[in-house]
Batch of 3 targets.
Target 1
Amino acid sequence: MSTDGPVVNVHVLFFAKARELANSSRSNVDVPTEIVASDLLDQLVSRFGLTTIRDNLILAHNESYIDNLSDSILFKEGDELAIIPPLSGG
Amino acid sequence: MSTDGPVVNVHVLFFAKARELANSSRSNVDVPTEIVASDLLDQLVSRFGLTTIRDNLILAHNESYIDNLSDSILFKEGDELAIIPPLSGG
Amino acid sequence: MDHVKLVNNPIDIAHIHQLLADEGCGASSVFVGTTRDNFQGKKVVSLAYEAYDNMALKEMKKICSDLRSKWPELKHIVIYHRLGTVPVCEASVVIAASSPHRSEALESVSFAIDQLKTRVPIWKKEIYEGDHDSEWKENKE
Amino acid sequence: MDHVKLVNNPIDIAHIHQLLADEGCGASSVFVGTTRDNFQGKKVVSLAYEAYDNMALKEMKKICSDLRSKWPELKHIVIYHRLGTVPVCEASVVIAASSPHRSEALESVSFAIDQLKTRVPIWKKEIYEGDHDSEWKENKE
């Protein structure tokens, strides 16, 4: 990821359509220790080829939804980040 | 039943508490060919010992509720009349 | 299809679910009413149900028609009521429906149980432990 | 008790009803979501479900807590979701609850299925007959 400050390595999980587009269900990525969620999402989208579904994605950090993409996320080494396409359980 | 005009013989069915008080589940009774439901109910209540539950009873004529006790009922020979205490199915 | 029945034996719940199955349906809702073990501090041993059979079946069928006019998408409807003695924990009534989408199945079953309690001529008597007199119950409006 | 599970095999509905049984309960409500055979004129052969397992279980447990704070009388709650391939007519999700009185059981199950669809990270892909591309579905708000 493009970043100037300190970075940590986190696990990124991909599901459903995002998994298919990324051609991967899991990846390890260096991320800044603090970053605005929408900036992070943009970087992941471009790196993993998710442009076509960008506007439908949300993020979960350590198994909790990031409700607002304008929020900042604080990362620690080994955190889990998930790319969440629209849900369709039930 | 006390009546002056033409009468027909009908089946009267008793259920639940009414059955217990009447000591019977079924009886044949002569009724006027036309009578106001509340008058009929009063006569049945006194004849079959249902005074204690009078205000909680409704009637069904040929398997249909008589929604309003001030309605008149028209009877034919062999009709079915039921004394219905408060329902408690379910 | 409408399945309406008064039964004298335990109701087979798995069978109810089979009656609802349909390839075009995405949702089934099943309500089961069971005998509780207590009422106002008295221990209930069992319930005894009786019905005005013919009229009860007629009213149960009317409930089915009412459901179908309110929720035309409904596929299968089941209304079974047990009569006679029903021990604690066993089902006295089962109301179930299936439909392509979930809201119809859920709403129609809720509506049907309320209807059943107010208009189907069935009565229950609670039989208590000890020397408490058994009691005819009364559904609230 | 709360019973929350992701399962890879057919869900045993009779077992769900057993989990709900309780002597103090008068009511059980069971919702079953099943695979439909059609979508916009295309014939559906099966559904493939995948989940973010740990988070899905966490969200399912949160739904249980939410139900218990909204309806404190609830006795047992069951939320089972099947993963992998689910053929037409088989259950993908079962949500069930028991309570002393019927309104809690009925309302909580309706509420829970809406919650599940909006917040539990599970996805389904419809697999169609013929040469139609399979499609990731999207729950409506």
Target 2
Amino acid sequence: MLAELLNPYHLQIASFIMINIILGISIYITLSSGQLSLGNAGFMGIGAYTSALLTIHFEVPIIIGVILGALVAGIFGILIGIPALRLSGVYLAIATLGFGEVIRVIFVNWESVTQGAVGLSGVPHLGRELFKTVTAMGFEPEMLGLRNNQVVYLMVLTLLVVINIFLVWFFIRQNKSRVGRAFAAIKMDEKAAESMGINITYYKVLSFTQGALLAGFAGALYAHVMAYISPADFAYHRAIEILIFSVFGGSEVIWGAIFGAAFMTILPEALRVISEYRYMIYGVILILMMAFRPQGIIDVSFLKWLKKMIKFRRGTDHGTGTKKHN
Amino acid sequence: MLLEQLINGITLGSIYAIVALGFTLVFGVLGIINMAHGEIFMIGAFIGVLVTSVLGLPLWVAFIAAIAVTAILGYMLERIALRPLRGKQGVSHLAPLISTIGVSILLENLSHHIFGAGNHPFQNSFAEIQIQIGSITIYIVQILIFVISIALMLILSYWLSKTKAGKALRATAENLETASLLGVNTKRTITTTVIIASALGGIAGILVGMAFNSVNPQMGLSMGLKGLAIIILGGMGNVKGAMAGGLLLGLAETMIVAYGDSGYRDAVAFITIIVILLVRPQGLFGKNTSEAGR
Amino acid sequence: MVLELKNITKNFGGISALTDVSFKINKGEIFGLIGPNGAGKTTMFNVITNMFLPTSGEINFLGETISGIKPHKITDKGICRTFQNIRLFSQMTVLENVLVGGHCRSTSGVLSSVFRTKSQRTEEENTRKVATELLELVGLSSYEDVIAENLAYGQQRRLEIARALASNPSLLLLDEPAAGMNETETDNLFELIKKVQQRGVTVLLIEHDMPFVMKLCDRITVLNFGKKLAEGTPEEIQNNPDVIEAYLGSEEDDQIA
Amino acid sequence: MLKVTGIETFYGKIQALKGVSLEVEQGKVVTLLGANGAGKTTTMKTIAGLLKPKTGTVEFLGENITGMRPDQLLRKGIALVPEGRAILSTMTVLENLEMGAYHRNDHDIKKDIEQVMEQFPILKERSEQLGGTLSGGQQQMLAIARALLSKPKLLLLDEPSMGLAPLIVADVFRMIREIKSSGTTVLLVEQNAKQALKVADYGYVMETGKIIINGEAKDLLEDPRIVEAYLGKKSS
Amino acid sequence: DTTGDGDSKNADGTVTAKIGVISYLSGPGAAYGEAITNGFNLALDEINEKGDVKIELVIEDSAGKQEQALTVAQKLMSDDDIVALLGPTLSTEMNVVAPEADLNGIPIMGTSTTAAGIPQIGEYVFRNSLPESLAIPAALEKAVAAEDAKTVAILYGNDDLFTKSGFDTMKEEAENMGLDILTIETFQKGQSDYNAQLTKIKDLNPDLILASALYNEGAVIMDQARKMGIDVPFVGGNGFNSPQVIEIAGDAAEGLIVATPWFGDKDEPKVQEFVKKYEEEYGAKPDQFAAQAYDALYIMAEGLKNAGEADRDALRDALAEIKDLDGVLGKFSFDKDGDVVMEPTVLVIKEGKFQLFE
Ligand SMILES: Nc1ncnc2c1ncn2[C@@H]1O[C@H](COP(=O)(O)OP(=O)(O)OP(=O)(O)O)[C@@H](O)[C@H]1O
Ligand SMILES: Nc1ncnc2c1ncn2[C@@H]1O[C@H](COP(=O)(O)OP(=O)(O)OP(=O)(O)O)[C@@H](O)[C@H]1O
Ligand SMILES: [Mg+2]
Ligand SMILES: [Mg+2]
């Protein structure tokens, strides 16, 4: 029963959804202070390579590797974020896209370390390492009537879900606080925000760095879920994919990025039956989306509506007296 | 070798410049980066292949056909992917970026579906005509590309800065509502611009096909990225900047191969723009319009 | 003395927007800055808040020089402004706008915000309390949850004032607050600014509505072509022939109009 | 000349105009008054073609012009000086003026530009400055001058005196008189109700998307409802 | 119970089995995936007609992306009826999928993955594609001997696993042979202008140009080189070997030397029959990818027949034992790692077609 439910295929997709959600949040965070960064694929690569190299060559435990990967990406975030302050709008977008490309080219050319296009194989696999640990402690998959790869992916997924819940909680709280308000103010009017005493340099670099850190974190996790990385994983297409998560799902609210990441990961699978036309359909969906719902699927009013629906369902007996001023 | 490499660089740069002109025109008027421009360029190249290699018709027919097809594509792009977003409330400035990415994905896969994934040769006797100067071979196509790019740049910059239509275009670029109040038919202005930009892409497509004898569905992407880099380099919406940026990049790429490490060729474009943006955030030729706290 | 401007000059390329302007503002007064269009009034605000660096000259605020300090630090020190073309955070609610105004009077960072430490909670409570109070003051209490963009024009102007007050300034700079208001609304604004003054805030005001300025201000400086033309009490200014010629216009002018 | 009948205009779901009807006679100055948010700007924009009414019609010189584009209307002779000036900020003052004459093909353009520059000397002085860097009041002058260059039959002015120095305000009202005497019809939105009623022949007062009062301008000046709501307590 | 041999064996003793195929069917490299699946399908009809084993193919698209290759692999592996995997197309994808297959104990065989180290990933991992480490030295040795070459220039695509690992072999081999490497130039995917690199190479005047490129780019490189007046022979890797080179580059393709497991003009009935059938079915000449795929399914069929049941472990053991199986590529065996043992043929393009290089 459990064995049927836990199809590794589905677990695998769910894990990718979780990683993509982190990427979605990473671009959302920078966007929330009004900066469009297309460099997150590059930061993701930095995180992935850092963690992979550390775990391969120095036998650093995966957890430490992932954390260091995220930190290194974060440091790059600061280094790029500061000069990027001078840019805005599309200029920033293209410059960060360019940063991503430069990073990829470095991965390709720095062969002595990165193995170039051949990529790094034999990256310790998160699930398999965990599996080794638990079996060493005497756990047998048969005890739950599960197969090895089911257990492996189940553990990966569980870990990723926990991480995601924490991150979403973290950023929702941040958003509701003084820091989140400063981001939003900068996004809406930088000059006015500055006049209100907001240190725009600090907050812009902060949000840029948070985005980079998250992207690096997702990249490091990616490396240990795929067990193999190559420069092509962090190229233009990835940057665009991450952007689409947020814009398709809705770039105003964190839930948009989450929904977008989940939906856009499932979509190619759902369209597998018509795989020949898959990408064409993908393109058409993007065009239609923008024409009919340019703010993305999930926006503030959608969330309000959703809340109302839930309240309505739950509490018809309390009445739904919501005051309206306008 | 230096001379030959210079010729290589100028040829490549001129092509970059024509592609960038299309980008810059659309950006200048709509403030939009048309991510589908590279793919329109690619379709132009394919039309060239179809007309000359498959149908065996003369080159000028290919040019006309490519211009016609890409112009129609431009029209459709405007109607389907851009116009519905315009003037709508709550549309983020990212929306057109995404919808043109949608178009680019669609076009790339469509052409892949129709023409297959491989390279198509662009065999044309005109492309074979060459001049021999000492040990250096120059192809007429190379000269043609250079001349066309310069001519296009001159025509466009004259058109934009001196003619009434050009002014209308700039007014439209700045503020749709105001322009229409001043009597500009903004819808037509925009459509015309996107069509012209697309046709420029078509021309560039054929020229690339001839110069390098290679046409494939993926060529749009790398050319598109370079085009982006160039308009940043030259200053967005600046015609002369696009030309200068194109030539600069073509030469820089060639020279890094000739005297440096060809592995970093693709990075040159972006390293340059990162450096330039840090020194001059508005690009080499962009105007600095610092905003006051009003 | 709250603010002292010493020989401020500001050039934009060939255009000199301000030439050698000096004046002092005393604590608690409402000080008017008037002059023809393009005289350099808004530029003066931009210089005081360091949005523009002056070409030359020095600014003293509460006995301390503030030349060359970053604009957000200036707000920290106690100068806050409104804009000639309203610049609210248009997608935020009214309350959130004022909360942002309180930014520089609070300190909690990312971690304390996320983990809601005790000091963060008290601080947040305080900020909210101040914000509600200010909305009450400007008469927007019942609009707390309205998106700023949807407010009527006059309300937006008042919200801008509340937002600026949230930073607890000693000096408030108002750039044409009465522009686009009808006379009833202007009267309300008059009351509001008086109340602000009673809170101990010094006000520097740019305005073209002369009856309003003359009634409200304690002292006035007139700029013309970037230079100081006159300074004095409303009476003195109203009767200054130079000012009449350059700016106010004579009675006949008014008759024609 | 202009006849607006029962227009209702929406911003998305928000209804800003709830059936506005008004009429402007040839050669007259008509003013439209009302508190902030009453719908004055919306009315002007609807007439100028920037907004499309859901119901109702706009007629100009006997022709139904409802739903036409602004550029078409300009050709028919309707020009709007919008609220907030709408200067082309990346174009020079001169280019802004040239754009004002965009739809004209006659040979007097140069002369006319000279003429408005004389009316507003500062524009001549700053003809090469970028529009966006002008001071607020300078921008307002440029906007009016630009509209005049289109030689309209009907000029729509949305708060032309906003942000202008008293002297210039006086100038603007003087100019409105001149415009009228040169045969151009004017529809004027103003906060400065008293001044507006002084130059106008006829007036309408709006409140929350409806016309609530109309009448001859001199009668409105005396109307107690208006005196209380719009002319303030001040007796000056 | 789905793995019992009761189901997988028909009453008459034939083995019935499902095999999963992961192929690159959409996106820029789809041409490879198409050729490969064509090869599979052609073999499938023949095998099922013969009737020793009955195979059903479940074909999935990976779009050339690791994540998608991995997810479809999971999908296929979680179907207990599927006893083996064929593919994926790219070595990058294989690097991700193979460890997973190995962990789950399902045999996986690459038909186009030529990078070093793949069969060594695990004991369930096989390949029948000729690795660069066999192909390139063979071609290089013959070319150097024939041209009496002393100096070479190397040109390769550095952002692609396939061409990069081909280059690694090329460089190593050239060094081993004591050749003087005048320059090493790189290019990137999607590039259409190679003039800068070629001008540099022309200036150095090498005896041979070693090019590790996929045929798409390779053909264009040759075209531009010949136009520029470079007329020395090119030595290419596995990916350069395709009839498409002649179609794209025309006369400029003359002088390309490659080593290949596959020679379509070979005077052998088996080969000729395959070529004929393939052309009838798909309207194009088969390339090595189609041929390798075609043989790969025969290898699987042989394995299943020898295993006698549709069981993953039994199939693995049977595959490892395969020796001297006759295919269109020649005699085929696996070595101890599961890698291919085979003697490549060296070909040259002459007079507009591939010919044996003597
Ligand atoms: N960035 C700039 N570049 C060039 N000139 C400028 C710039 N900013 C302002 N100016 C010029 O400086 C002068 C002063 O402008 P400012 O905005 O301070 O006027 P103001 O007194 O506020 O006028 P108003 O009452 O019309 O708002 C004007 O002539 C204006 O054109
Ligand atoms: N873009 C918009 N979106 C939504 N509502 C709008 C928009 N513009 C105006 N409104 C609303 O329409 C109503 C009428 O606005 P309008 O601008 O026409 O008023 P007005 O009389 O010109 O006021 P003011 O004196 O402030 O210029 C107001 O309630 C306003 O909030
Ligand atoms: Mg001002
Ligand atoms: Mg209005």
Target 3
Amino acid sequence: EQEIIVSAAASLTNAFTEVGKKFEAANPGTKVVLNFAASGPLLQQIEQGAPADVFASADQKTMDQANEKKLILTETRKNFAGNGLVLIVPGDAKTSIKALKDLTLKEITRISVGNPESVPAGRYAEEALTSEGLWETLKPKFILANSVRQVLDYVSRGEVDAGIVYATDAAVAKEKVRVALKLEKHKPILYPIAVVAATRKTDPARRFIDFVLSEEGVEILSKYGFGKP
Amino acid sequence: MTQTLVPLLLTLKVAGFATLGASLVGVSVAFLLARVRFRGREWLDAFLTLPLVMPPTVLGYYLIVIIGRRGWIGSWLYETFGVTLMFTWQGAVVASTVVSLPLVFKAARSAFESIDPNLEKAARTLGLSEAGVFFRVSFPLAWPGILAGTMLAFARAMGEFGATLMVAGNLPGKTQTLSLAVYDAVQAGNERMAATLVIITSLVCMAVLVFSG
Amino acid sequence: MTQTLVPLLLTLKVAGFATLGASLVGVSVAFLLARVRFRGREWLDAFLTLPLVMPPTVLGYYLIVIIGRRGWIGSWLYETFGVTLMFTWQGAVVASTVVSLPLVFKAARSAFESIDPNLEKAARTLGLSEAGVFFRVSFPLAWPGILAGTMLAFARAMGEFGATLMVAGNLPGKTQTLSLAVYDAVQAGNERMAATLVIITSLVCMAVLVFSG
Amino acid sequence: MVIEVSVEKRMESKARHFRLDAAFSSREQCVVLFGPSGSGKTLTLQSIAGLVTPDAGRIALNGRVLFDTQSGVNVPSRHRKIGYVFQDYALFPHRTVLENVGFGLKNDWPWRLSRDDRRQVMEFLEAFEISQLAQSYPLDISGGQKQRVALARALIRKPDLLLMDEPFAALDTLLRVKLREELAKIRRAFDIPMVMVTHDPEDIRVFAETLVIYEIGRVRECLHFLKSDGTDLEEVLAS
Amino acid sequence: MVIEVSVEKRMESKARHFRLDAAFSSREQCVVLFGPSGSGKTLTLQSIAGLVTPDAGRIALNGRVLFDTQSGVNVPSRHRKIGYVFQDYALFPHRTVLENVGFGLKNDWPWRLSRDDRRQVMEFLEAFEISQLAQSYPLDISGGQKQRVALARALIRKPDLLLMDEPFAALDTLLRVKLREELAKIRRAFDIPMVMVTHDPEDIRVFAETLVIYEIGRVRECLHFLKSDGTDLEEVLAS
Ligand SMILES: [Mg+2]
Ligand SMILES: [Mg+2]
Ligand SMILES: [Mg+2]
């Protein structure tokens, strides 16, 4: 009986939970512990010695930092999924937003985005809004969240009027949030995965990555709305 | 500099208001419980002590249920006045008040209860009204105990993290107190910032401790 | 079911060990401070009380500096035994112990100090050694106060959030205690889960309060 | 003075039940309540002062009804004009001797003593030979001095009656004799009627004009020495 | 007995300084330390019992040196074989009367009394007429009963000397007379020497064979009544 810890970006919560179960079924004797948070904090944890074996981030920048700090085995790094960025509003919202610039309307008082310092979804949102020249204008309305799932939570509870999350997140909470529009002017969203350098369980870690990249893995991911890399 | 000054000032503002609120409520209820015998007296005590033993995140959950935009009071506030406490420094004050209330309350109650009842009786025979007895005898005699409780409450309010994070979020310059800023800086791997914030906070806490001890 | 049972059992394990550690240290130092006069006595008291007034995130930062993989003790532990406390339930125990220590310590010290010194003197004239005086007089008489402090420490350890989050992370099944699970469930918008966890935690906290009161 | 006292009061606590049912009256100036501790003497005294509300009974002083369950009268303590010297003196520890003595002179905000009031307090301190303690705090003065402060604080309000609860119990035997004489002198000087609680027979010898003998919860006997009805003090004490 | 006491001790606190420098000796069975409160009587008694360590001095009992700064002797309290009855009796509130009296009989783990020890405790309870209180806790018994428990607890260890600190101060005047007689009887029955602290002249009349008169921090006089050196007790008390 052995156990691997997979530190994965918050947006992977539902998909990787299923991936983990299927992997355990396919590899008897190996248990998967999943640790979800924003990619930035996950990187910090690994740097401080968190016993993670696999790291899956939601953006290339965080994985690049991990690579620079020699926290991952470079040769194991692979891109395994893609995603889209959407603007969501609470399901019962009366306001209708047809374009990003509608966010400047007076009735939109609070917009939640991930904190660009540590949340990849926040960085993509910053890019998209900056290219429309809206980032600085909208700043006073921002409610910065610690992870993309917190953005989703704020919108579903109606605490904010709008939020920017991944398409896959919006799909998870269909009954509570409505996709107002898709965002496009940002770098392509590519999820990289790699084995953590400090692991002593290189074998099962590699096997987990292989499973994610396998046909079965890709199928699960696409079921939750992730695109091919 | 401003990066540490802004959260420090915000923290002092939030903790100050929270301590004020907690002291007013805590001292009045403590006096009531120490002097008047009524049914459910000990239940009220237990209820007010609950935040001392309850995880701050659970308190945060309850506060969201109550003052969230769709909460019992929150929805009314929003529909009536168009305001919401979530993600505002006022929300942080509410969270910190709840969390630090038991500290003043407990200290004040035991301070009032340890006053020799003959002193209050003596004041009555000297012609003092009940209000006079409170302001000229009970309160001044309980003051050292109340002050110590208030200092602890202030320190607790300064350090509040879990409930504040859930209710007020972590908005730099708006609701990001020292405690949250430390967390943020460590999360973002900003080591110098983290160290600076930690040192400032430690100094303020030690000052509080020295004053209250 | 297991989703709530696992964090509950983990919480009880972590809080249990933390309370044990905090009680052993807290009671011994409290007795020392209550009975022996030495230089720096009040400084030691202040140092042990610090966690009560310090933000848990700041404590988390210090703990990372000390027991983190690159910390003073942490690096030695890692190089010598190949173990690290970060992100383990043992790390959560360390964080909770530090946080709950002042509660036992303060209660025990005041319990020891409120014992009539003549009772200990009487025991000496009756032929008891100093150890006998401690185990047959001082400790049994201080017991109600110590117990109350221990219960509060247990509750505090159960609710620990900030320092645990930083030191032990939030790994389901390994370091995710109730307090963290509540935060996580709310974050993840998992309302039923959040509500279940909150109710369980509230019940446990109220039980603790009733027992300690 | 004319004092009529009749009080009933149940006290319940976890450990014990106590029922007081006591009545006495007197037309003399000095009433002494005598009996073992726990017999209800202090409870009677506090009922007279209005610090405890009896379950039933009637208390009247010089024809003025202070308490009466039948007619529903219950004058609040602050309006009874009764001075009370507590067994442990109950001086305000956060106030100086001067402030203690002047405490009851001005009872509405802002509680500052006028120049006249201060002068009066100083005169009292001199009369009680405690001027030199004016700025001391109760913690720093001796038991005998505390008693004088407590007396001065009660008498400065010119009460109609002075109640004293075991005034000498806290003092050394040596000091006790001296202060007993002093009190007798002061009482004559102020010409104020008094009800005193004690369990010391010596107090009876010096003070009692009316002697009320308590046993647990009730009055066993009420004796009037000035009436010369054949009651002999020494005989009573010997029994 | 032969007792020699000479103690020096400085006590410093924020509010006041106190210096005790007292010496007396006696060959009689009953020594009474008399004087105002705060004069150092209790401090002397605790020095004899080894509960307080004097700065300098010498304490010897029947030729056995218990304390001597010169030769560096300081026998720990538990080996002095001295019984002590505290002013407030200092009964263990968490133990029954039976357990209190038997407390000092078995002092190594596991502290359970043997059947013989229990029988001895029961005999003592009977001798002190408190058998019916065996299972009561100190909180629930009266002052006079407490005194008997404290006495029995001290005497059951067959000490060489009994120290008593104001044994009657906490009692009613009425009860005091009765218990004073009882103590005199018990002392004779156990034939145990005693040092008693008091500020009540009546105790001197009943107990003093040697009288040590204290004034603040020192001994004013040490009188021996049994030697019939012309000292008259009543004369002393009158002065
Ligand atoms: Mg009384
Ligand atoms: Mg004494
Ligand atoms: Mg007395």
